[in-house]
């Protein structure tokens, strides 16, 4: 289940009241506790937040609701991450901090650097990702990408040099609303959502930054992340328990750990491994145990390891050890083999 801190709903109540409505019934109708309007650190299911914003925009006939919310967000929307960002040395430092610690604010959202889609010299792109497949939650996307722009304005000033905006969806509001908000050209229906910014932003210092505050903020943020070494062990434990039921989808393991699949992938990547590699290693170790320490039939071993067919298990054995399962079983100590036959 993908979540976001309740700070992500900032501005919602204010906008709704300005439009003459009461936000609390809307929040309840979305299956959320009204406490999310006042307590920034409460987790909100991302899909419920997106549905709330979309329903409110439709009911109140306010197609630019997401942009209005973004305009009301301060950097402190990001909680402890805001302290680190405000005290980073440069734009590159702030981007690296965002990539690493944005998961503290939401385990679904991701911002990273990519090449400029127009290939313009001196320009790079900041890509915004994280919402699930399916119809785009336009209001939530408007609020999220709009806040990314707002954060850059707060760190580097309104004239930080935004060269253009690409949005991967069709606009809910009049395109002129987007141009007024971003003060830059906006193109819709693009392959990815991103902001085109000058590459000199990476070397630009953050005004008023204090390195000691940055370091203390990062030390605290580290405590909020699940230790990466322990993460590998926790994933291995979950996978080991699920194999007996068949194939182990990464999404199922992520759910068991209350993580978004992309967050799980990023944390494993930071350790130089992948979900597929963990599953493969567990299967290999378990296969060696079943083949050399038990008399379990090959078909049963295959099923216990979550392989759909015994032939697939056999191919895996060839990949692991260069021989079929029967050859691996033949390597059992002779005394153990004699004991197994005697007690069979």
From TrEMBL:
Lineage: Bacteria, Bacillati, Actinomycetota, Actinomycetes, Micromonosporales
Keyword DNA-binding: yes
Occurrences of domain HTH araC/xylS-type (ranges): 233-331
SUPFAM superfamilies for the chain: Homeodomain-like
Native species: Actinoplanes philippinensis
GO CC, alphabetical: cytosol
Keywords of this entry: DNA-binding, Transcription, Transcription regulation
Keyword Transcription in record: yes
Protein name, UniProt field: AraC-type DNA-binding protein
InterPro entries: AraC-type_N, Homeodomain-like_sf, HTH_AraC
One of the record's GO molecular function terms: transcription cis-regulatory region binding
């Amino acid at each position: 289940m993908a979540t976001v801190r309740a700070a992500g709903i900032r501005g919602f109540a204010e906008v709704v009241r300005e439009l003459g409505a009461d936000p609390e019934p809307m929040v309840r109708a979305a299956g959320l506790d009204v406490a999310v309007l006042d307590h920034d650190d409460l987790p909100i299911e991302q899909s419920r937040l997106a549905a709330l914003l979309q329903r409110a925009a439709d009911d109140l006939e306010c197609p630019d609701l997401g942009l209005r919310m973004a305009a009301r967000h301060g950097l402190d929307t990001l909680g402890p991450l805001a302290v680190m960002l405000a005290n980073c040395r440069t734009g590159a430092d702030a981007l690296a901090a965002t990539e690493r610690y944005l998961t503290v604010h939401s385990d679904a959202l991701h911002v990273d650097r990519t090449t400029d889609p127009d290939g313009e010299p001196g320009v790079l792109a900041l890509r915004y990702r994280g919402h699930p497949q399916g119809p785009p939650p336009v209001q939530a996307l408007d609020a999220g990408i709009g806040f990314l722009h707002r954060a850059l304005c707060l760190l580097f000033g309104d004239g930080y040099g935004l060269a253009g905006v690409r949005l991967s969806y069709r606009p809910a509001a009049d395109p002129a609303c987007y141009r007024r908000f971003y003060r830059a050209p906006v193109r819709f229906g693009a392959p990815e959502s991103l902001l085109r910014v000058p590459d000199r932003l990476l070397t630009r210092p953050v005004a008023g930054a204090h390195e000691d505050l940055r370091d203390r903020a990062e030390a605290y943020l580290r405590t909020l992340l699940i230790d990466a070494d322990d993460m590998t062990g926790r994933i291995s434990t979950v996978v080991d328990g699920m194999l007996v039921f068949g194939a182990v989808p990464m999404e199922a393991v992520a759910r068991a750990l209350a993580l978004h699949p992309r967050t799980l992938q990023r944390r494993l990547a930071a350790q130089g491994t992948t979900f597929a590699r963990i599953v493969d290693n567990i299967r290999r170790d378990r296969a060696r145990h079943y083949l050399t320490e038990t008399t379990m039939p090959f078909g049963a071993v295959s099923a216990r390891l979550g392989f759909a067919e015994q032939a697939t298990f056999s191919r895996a054995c060839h990949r692991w050890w260069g021989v079929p399962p029967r050859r691996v079983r033949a390597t059992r100590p002779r005394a153990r083999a004699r004991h197994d036959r005697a007690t069979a």
